[in-house]
Amino acid sequence: MARMTVREMWAAKLAGKAVPATAHSGVNEAQVGAGFGRKVPFVGVVLGIDPSLRGTGLALVEFTVGRGPLLLRCQTVKVHPKRPMAEALAEIHRAVTAMITGAGVRHVAMEQTIFVQNFQTAQILGAARGAAMAAAALHELPIFEYAPLRVKQAVVGAGRASKEQMARTVMAMLGHGRTLAFDEADAAGVALCHAFTWRE
Known about the structure:
The two termini are about 30 Å apart. It contains eight helices and five strands. Helix 4 runs parallel beside helix 5 and helix 7 packs across helix 8. By secondary structure, it is α/β, with parallel strands linked by helices.
């Protein structure tokens, strides 16, 4: 039997499928001792957020034991460049609130901002993140943040994966029929990363 990657094993466990014994899977005893073999699959709805002032990606993904992850809804919050920053932030806040309302969201997973070109860019991205986080916080939802490298490693299996690779992998995992915009695929990827790496 071919060895399964760690990512494939997480996907199988989330779908309620059988996972090969550690002797055949490439998982060592140290990983098992650390709780790898006893991981409780995440169950519930995760709102994934890829923050950006003019193009925030949002994705609602549902995780259920015995079935693969299901994309419930996704959206790119597009804001025209000529609109003031304050209006853009308000639009992000409204969109996140609308996505959460009535969706039974259990957790919110957000991509961290690791590298920025300059101070002004950092301020803009920080403001966009703040608008999204505030909306989730007002609903008293726990928020988890993940570095882009960690998301790509968890979902694609390669930290340097391209946006195209990320989008293709996310769509394959979700069994989604249409092509996702990069921002939406990134948001769904953060949600998948959260479920794959979650510990009770």
